[in-house]
Amino acid sequence: MIRPIDADQLRDSKAMPLVLRVFGEFEAPEYSDEGVREFQEYVDERAMEQRLRSGELLMWGYFVDGRVVGVIAMRPIGHVSLLFVDKEHHRRGIARRLLDVAVSTCMKRSARIETTVNPSPYAVGFYRKLGFVETDGEQTLNGIRFVPMKRTEP
Fold this sequence. Notes:
The chain has a single domain, classed as 3-Layer(aba) Sandwich (Aminopeptidase), CATH 3.40.630.30. Helix content is 38%, strand content 27%. It has helices spanning 10-13, 15-26, 33-42, 45-54, 94-109, 124-129, and strands at 2-4, 58-64, 67-75, 79-85, 114-117, 133-134, 139-141, 144-146, 149-152.
C-alpha cells in the first residue's frame, strides 16, 4: 500500500532509517567519506521534517503489513530526491509504483513535462529501464556521485 508521509508521520513511518540502511548497503561503499556524511546530513529526520513542512519535498511510503519497505521523496517541480526500497523487496515493482504515484501527483500540481533525477551510478540502469536518459556524464558534488537524467512525461 502506498500512502503519503508528512512531517508529522515521518518518525513513526521509519522512512529515514530505511533510506539510511539501503544507502549504506548499496551506495555508500562507492562514496567517499565526504559523500556519505553529506548524504546522512541530507536525510537527517529534522531536516527532512522541515522540507516536508515547507512543501520543498513530498514523500510517499510503500507499506507491507504496516512496515515501510520503500520510500520516495520528490520536489513538486518533478525532481526525484530519494527513492529507496528494502533489499528484500527489490525487483517487485515497488520503486516503479512509487515513482508513478509521485510523478502523477506532481504533474497535477504543475504543467511540467519532464521528471529529473540525479541517481548514483548504482541506480542508472534502473532509471534507464524506466525511460530516463542521461543528460550529462557522471559528476561529483560534495562527495556525492551522480549522473543527471531526465524523462519526458506523456
